[in-house]
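Hi V.,

You were right to ask for the full record rather than a summary. Here it is.
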Amino acid sequence: MDLFEAIKSRRSIRHYEPKSIPKETIMQILRLSLNAPSAGNRQPWRLHVVQNPAIRKQLSEAAGGQTLLLEAPWVICVIAVPDESASKYGERGRSLYCIQDTAALATYILLIARGFGLDTCWVGAFNEQKVGEILKLSANQRCVAMIPIGYAGEPRKDRGRKSLEEIAIFHE
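Predicted structure:
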């Protein structure tokens, strides 16, 4: 699938088929995603790649019982390391750049997975402290997003988007 088709066809999928995905496919997606931009090329991120059903169950519970984290065969937890941004950019790096950088990485994962014919959802509604405990994150790490990856178990829903005219202000 080409890039434009991946962008146009990506949707948040909340139900997945019980179909496995080879680890090598997940590794290809993640290797490609590491091309995401980051401020000062700090790459202030870590990835926790979860296939283990018991851990996915705990993550689901920490996310208010969201079953998509149980149904998808893989969940990628995108972790920010604020100190790595702060070492170059101070408080702005700690509070903003590391979040922007991990958001870029998460977006790359979503689009690259779609390019492989897989489906995803950006999960941001979760108890960050509980997720940190489950993943055994250090005090200087934050889970920014959890991304289930699998095959859609529901139809894609096209939801309306604001027009460019509604959101863009051109200064020419």
